[in-house]
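Hey, I'm writing a tutorial for new members on how sequence and structure tokens pair up, and I'd like a real worked example in the thread rather than a made-up one. If someone can provide the structure for the chain below, I'll link this post from the tutorial.
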Amino acid sequence: MQIAILSDTHDNIWKLDALNPHLRHADVILHCGDLCSPFVVVRLAQGAAGKPVHVVWGNNDGDQRLLTLKALEAGNVHIHGQFAALELDGLSVAINHYPEIARPVAMSGQYDLVCYGHDHTAHKEMVGDTLLLNPGDVMGLHGRSTFAWFDTRTRQARWVELA
């Protein structure tokens, strides 16, 4: 299974439009928070073309009511609140927005993959048997706009830079 992992879109629809063609190759999409505006949910859902999108809240997701309504209208976007625990292709996956939460969750050893965002910095490391992964940011805050691919078969992650 191919998982596209995103974070911190921050309303950058131009980078999201550059990302969307990549999402056709994903089996599932994870978003680690800070979509920001409801119109981003609509664009992300369209780019996912019916594939499941799992989202957790970030600190800049302001109108959570309207974000949730747009997700429900889309049908393929699932908002989990502050934390998501998923079973994907036999792997246990946790998603949240904050690195200070992600690290202890990874240290718990309960998950194979723990994804987070917030600091806009691409990062991966093994914490025991758990991969701790920040996909960077779609927004491009530091000049580089990235997302991550994770292959459940090989358990390998790699970054893709968006033009």
